Amino acid sequence: MPDNISLRDATIDDAPAIAAIYNHYVRESLATLAEDAMPDTPMQQRVQTLCAAKLPFLVAVDQMQNGIAGYAYASPYSDRSGCAPTLECSIYLHPDHCSKGIGRQLMDPLISALVSTTTKTQVLAKMSILPDQSPESLTTCRLHASMGFRQVGRLDRVGFKLGKWVDVVMLQLDLEALRK
């Protein structure tokens, strides 16, 4: 990780910068299947809700530019009570900060926090991918695999964005196995 990057817990004040990063991917890529930009207020609510639930929400801060270089968080996988042991994680990097090791620097403490401070048993991650693409061709899939996530499924042509059909790859990490 570059020397000018530090990690810390997200705050409500970070929401505009976090939303700006996310909205770049909404507008410009298939990384999210969302097509409508997220306003700052819902992102503030997300930060507040996850922090109140004692779930990790981390930001990487570029000290030289005094801005958010990326973020990662864990959220409930589903609001159904039977899914309470399962979380979903998300990570997004500012486009100027990709391929610099910041993703791993965010994911390491995120996973460590899930192992040490929660009783959750599983964490899932979803990645959008083109139908003819292999998961290994995506940096984010390779990052998650290097963290111990394993591919557990692929949903074919479940999205359509930017004029393209999109698959979704599902990855899973067994937190209980990491506690042993």
Q: How would a textbook summarize the main sheet?
A: 7 strands, mixed
CATH top level label: Alpha Beta
Bulk shape: globular
Query: In total, how many domains does the architecture comprise?
Result: 1
SSE class? alpha+beta
State the total count of DSSP E strands. Answer: 7
Question: How is the CATH topology named?
Answer: Aminopeptidase
Task: Determine the strand fraction and express it as a percent band.
Answer: 25-35%
What are the low-pLDDT stretches, counting only 5+ consecutive residues below 50? none
Count of helical regions: 5
CATH architectural group: 3-Layer(aba) Sandwich
Order of helices and strands: EHHEEEHEHEEH
Q: Report helical residue fraction.
A: 25-40%
Radius of gyration equals: 16 Å
Q: Name the CATH superfamily classification.
A: Gcn5-related N-acetyltransferase (GNAT)
InterPro entries: Acyl_CoA_acyltransferase, GNAT_dom
Keywords: Acyltransferase, Transferase
GO molecular function, one term: acyltransferase activity, transferring groups other than amino-acyl groups
Protein name: N-acetyltransferase domain-containing protein
What does this structure look like?
The protein has a seven-stranded mixed sheet with strand order 1-2-3-4-5-7-6, sandwiched between helices. About 30% of the residues lie in helices and about 35% in strands. With about 180 residues, the protein is an alpha+beta fold. The chain has helices spanning about 15-30, 40-50, 100-115, 140-145, 175-180; strands at about 5-10, 55-60, 65-75, 85-95, 120-130, 150-160, 165-175.
